[in-house]
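Researcher: I'd like a structural prediction for the single chain below. Treat it as a standalone chain; there are no partners to consider.
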Amino acid sequence: MDTMEIRVNTVSLSIIVFLLSGFMAENGAKRIKGYRQMRERNIRSYVSHSLPNLLNEGHHETVFITQNSSSVVAQMGGTARLPCIVRKSNNGVVSWIRKNGSPPTILTVGLGTYIADDRFLVEQARHLQNWGLVIKHVQMSDSGTYECQVSLHPTSSIFIDLKVIEAVAEISGAPDLHIRAGSELRIVCRLRHSTEPPAYVFWYHDHRMINHDPGVQVSVDHTKSTLKIDDVDPSFSGNYTCYPSNTNPAYVNVHVLNATEEEYPAAMMHNGTCNIYLLNAIFCLLASMLILCS
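Model: Treating it as a single chain, here is the predicted structure.
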């Protein structure tokens, strides 16, 4: 191999090495740039999401006494009370906002109701710093998430979930209750899924209220109402309805039986059938005798 050929190969090899070095340097720079961009995105994501949440959690503890993400259960037709107790060192305006909707609905600002629904109001106790939201005559549509917000800098909020359930009344022994005449009639009406005692429980006998009738005793507590009537007779038979103020009613059919009706109904039916057969036989015998005589 001559000197010229060696020089050409050396130059070619140098060019190839130079090109490969430039390609590797360019790829390395791109990789470093990609790593830097990915790291910057992660930092921005942490700053915009995780860091505010951590700061807000700490801010919640300095503003509110009520725990964030609390739950309240209320029965349909009753009264719901959503707590929001703030610390005395905070002087911001307290507002309630309903989050189930787009956009969210402002319910109250300070002590004033912001919407045209007088079921919503603020029950404020200054010595406790409680700015609780009260919802009267609760409806199923009232269930959802509510925000208690304090207008500080930055604004701070907690969220309360309201669950609405339907209470029902149940009568033991329904739908039919049989008792002996002269005994005590006692009907127990239990309130299921009730979150508050009823304001009243009306008892009806065949569509007539009997709470204040002579001899009728009605007792009411948080979970049940009891109706008592001493020394009943067949006139007390009929439909009895338990009607709580905030619960679906329940009813039972009462049958008051005399001693003879209760103890000998089968014998009475048997004797009646036998008497019919006997009368028919006598009638047939008389008819036959008349025919023979004629």
